[in-house]
Each structure stands twice: as structure tokens, then as C-alpha cells.
Amino acid sequence: MNDLDATDRAILRALSRDATRPAADLGRKLGLSQPAAWRRIRRLREIGALKGRRLDLDAAALGFGVTVFLGVKLANRGRVSLEDFERAVCAIREVQTVEHVLGLHDYRLRVVARDLEDFERVLRRRIMTLPGIGPVEANVLLSEERLPGPL
């Protein structure tokens, strides 16, 4: 993927800010025709640099006022497969992201809940009953200063 030129990078930056921007608008901004901009966008999709479009929802505005990051260590006994754990944890709708990590924990989860009482219910009834679950460490999100953005 090192064959991206400055125009490709400019397209990626523009689309990461607003994925709904039409190719004609991008082309005008970058000095390309609409067909040339469209071809570059199609090529970026084909090589995997663009993986789709994403809509960011405001969790708090939708009634989810609490975000908790969970560090999950799988239990040593029972030898549950990673796939079984991942399948089960991904089925919990309050779990927004599941990241398999290297370090103190085996997984890092981003969990949203309406409030702390709702989070406790999700933790006790859904997360702590997962196959292979071991020790869990919770960190409540206080504020988010920087959201994921352009690479």
C-alpha cells in the first residue's frame, strides 16, 4: 500500500472527514475531473484502503450515558476457544468493540450503558457469564478528548 500518492492521501483525508462527499466535489477540490476522482476512489476501495462508510452516532444523545472499557482476562481452566468467547461477546449489543490485545488482558471491550445501574446489570448478567471469562478490570470513560480520525 506504499504506492499511494499525495492525491490518494488527500482523497483519504477528505473522505475520513465526510464519507458522503461526491466524487465531483472531491475532484474540484483536488484539481481532478469527476471521473478521475471516482476512479481513484474505486481503486482505493479495491486495494483495501477504504473499507466502507461509517455513521457516527452520539451515544449520550441516544440515552447511553456511560461508557466503560473492560480489560478481560480469559480463565486458564476449561480451555475455551477464542472463537467461542468472541462469538458470545459480540452477541451482546451493549458491547461496541471487541479487541484481542497483547498485555495484561486478553481482550479490551468498549461497553455502553444507560447508566451505572444498567452497566452493572450488563456486567453481571451478560459479560460475567461468558464462556471462559476470567478476571475483569473496568475503567469508566470520563471524557473523550480525541476521537479516531485520519491516519
TrEMBL record:
Question: Record's InterPro entries?
Answer: ArsR-like_HTH, AsnC-type_HTH_dom, Dimeric_a/b-barrel, Tscrpt_reg_AsnC-like, Tscrpt_reg_AsnC/Lrp_C, Tscrpt_reg_HTH_AsnC-type_CS, WH-like_DNA-bd_sf, WH_DNA-bd_sf
What GO terms in the biological process aspect are recorded for it?
A: regulation of DNA-templated transcription; response to amino acid
Molecular-function annotations in GO: sequence-specific DNA binding
In terms of domain of life, where is this protein from?
A: Bacteria
| Record keywords, A-Z | DNA-binding, Transcription, Transcription regulation
Xref: PROSITE patterns: HTH_ASNC_1, HTH_ASNC_2
Q: Which residues form the HTH asnC-type domain?
A: 4-65
Gene3D superfamilies tied to this protein: 3.30.70.920, Winged helix-like DNA-binding domain superfamily/Winged helix DNA-binding domain (1.10.10.10)
Q: Name one GO cellular component term.
A: cytosol
Name the chain's protein: AsnC family transcriptional regulator
Q: Which organism is it from?
A: Limimaricola cinnabarinus
